[in-house]
C-alpha cells in the first residue's frame, strides 16, 4: 500500500512506503529482560508518552527508573516514574520511554503515545486490532 502525505520538512510530497500503519487499538508485544507479554494497546495521538500499567511493568521486570516526570492526564496531574521499554508492533521493535501508572481501571493496560508514533507510524482508523484493513 502506498499513501501520499504532506511532509512539513520538505517542499512537496513523500511516499509512505516505509511507514507502519496502525489503527486506534492494536495487539502489541512488550519485551522485558526475561519475558515477553502480548497485550492490547490504545493508540493515542493526544498522549505525549507511552504508558504501561504498573502490574504489567512489574511482571515484565522493567527497570530501572531513569527519571520521574510531571504528567497531565485525563485522571489529573501526577508525578510518574519513567522507564525504558521495548515494544513489538507488527514487524517492528522499538525501544522508548514509558510512564508507569495504575491503569487497572482502564480498558487498555498499554497506551502508545506520540513518542513512539513519531517513529514512522501512520494511524488509520479503518485498520482493525490485528493490523489488517
What topology emerges from the helices and strands here?
Layout: E1 4-6, E2 13-15, E3 20-22, E4 25-31, E5 36-43, E6 50-53, H1 54-60, E7 67-73, E8 76-89, E9 92-101, E10 110-112, H2 114-117, E11 121-123
Parallel strand pairs: 3-11, 5-10, 6-9
Antiparallel strand pairs: 1-2, 4-5, 4-8, 6-10, 7-8, 8-9
Q: Explain this structure to me?
A:
It is a single chain. This protein is mainly β. It contains 2 helices and 11 strands; from the N terminus they run ββββββαββββαβ. The chain has a single domain (22-123), classed as Acid Proteases (Cathepsin D, subunit A, domain 1), CATH 2.40.70. It has helices at 54-60, 114-117, and strands spanning 4-6, 13-15, 20-22, 25-31, 36-43, 50-53, 67-73, 76-89, 92-101, 110-112, 121-123. The strands form 3 sheets. A 6-stranded mixed β-barrel has the order 4-5-10-6-9-8. A two-stranded antiparallel ribbon has the order 1-2. Strands 3-11 form a two-stranded parallel ribbon. The longest helix has 7 residues, at 54-60. The protein is globular and about 35 Å long. Mean pLDDT is 86; it is low at 9-14.
Task: Using brief descriptors, characterize the structure shown.
133 residues, mainly beta, Cathepsin D, subunit A, domain 1, 6-stranded mixed beta barrel, two-stranded antiparallel sheet, 8% helix
* Fraction of helical residues: under 10%
Shape: globular
Main sheet makeup: 6 strands, mixed, barrel
Instruction: Kindly provide the radius of gyration, computed on alpha-carbon positions and rounded to a whole number of angstroms.
Output: 15 Å
